[in-house]
Amino acid sequence: MKIHECEFIGSFPSVSKIPESQLVEVCFWGRSNVGKSSLINYICNRKDLAKTSSHPGKTQTLNLFLVNQNIQLIDLPGFGYAKVSKKLKEKWMPMIKDYLIQRKNLYLCYLLIDGSIPIQKIDQEIMQLLHSNQIPFYIVFTKTDKVTKRERSILLKDFIFHLKENWENLPLMIETSVENKIGADLILEQLHSFADKTKS
Ligand SMILES: Nc1nc2c(ncn2[C@@H]2O[C@H](COP(=O)(O)OP(=O)(O)O)[C@@H](O)[C@H]2O)c(=O)[nH]1
Ligand SMILES: [Mg+2]
User: Fold this and answer.
1) Closest ligand 1 atom, CA of 180?
2) Tally of domains within the chain
3) Closest atom, ligand 1, to C-alpha of 52
4) Would you say the CB of residue 146 lies under 6 angstroms from ligand 1?
5) CB atoms within 10 A of CB 155
């Protein structure tokens, strides 16, 4: 799928405020600063569509994008940023959970995980949360350019090893780097097939 058009529709404070749609929707989630906005910009081939930041904890709303008039993307607020006040956290998590559980056209969650560091407990907890709420998800490793190929393959092996302790079926995993332009083709292909599937 080539991106012809990618449009920012709006920022919404809760799932009930997002316009209803018959189009397939996928969401991007992960720890603050993991690279969600950068990945959306990269797959849409736009520099500043989703606001990227070196200051974590910036996205506080559900940000909706429309791609090629046939699939919707949601940039979710990140989790796990210690400096965000408790009050904000108490507001965000229910907002995100409500979105994940209530959004009728949500097809899949892309869970972004920093591919340059070892597996984090919070990422495992979030995978568990998605699983227990029956939200299908794929794992997207980000920032793979920050380590050597050899280091990356050790990190991946270790990640899979830890997952196998708790999971029988492993989720699909995708390697990406915005720096080295890796991974967008595959994600675009997937988006295309999701959009097609629901038409038939
Ligand atoms: N080296 C490298 N840095 C990245 C990559 N993706 C994102 N970043 C950087 O990570 C920081 C956080 O990115 P952002 O997209 O704002 O993360 P978000 O909080 O998850 O939306 C920014 O400084 C990005 O430039 C990547 O693939 N490689
Ligand atoms: Mg962001």
Assistant:
1) 27
2) 1
3) 16
4) yes
5) 19
| 52 belongs to a structural domain | yes
With cut-offs at 50, 70 and 90, classify the pLDDT of residue 22. Answer: very high
The secondary element (H helix, E strand) that includes residue 125 is helix 121-132
Pocket test for ligand 1, best of 52, 53, 174, 180 (most atoms within 8 A of CB): 52
The CB of 152 under 6 Å from ligand 1? The reply is: no
Domain residue limits at 105: 6-199
- Answer yes or no: is 123 within a domain: yes
Among the bound ligands, name the one nearest to the CA of residue 31.
1
Q: Which of 101, 106, 103 is nearest to 129 (CA)?
A: 101
* CATH number reported for the structural domain that contains residue 146 in this entry: 3.40.50.300
Q: What is the pLDDT of residues 81-94, one digit of tens each?
A: 666 666 666 777 88
168 CA distance to ligand 2 centroid (A)? 31
Global pTM? 0.93
Q: Evaluate whether residue 125 is within a structural domain.
A: yes
DSSP tag of 63: E
Residue 1 domain-assigned? Answer: no
CA distances from 39 to 47, 146, 160, 166, 185 (A): 10, 15, 23, 28, 12
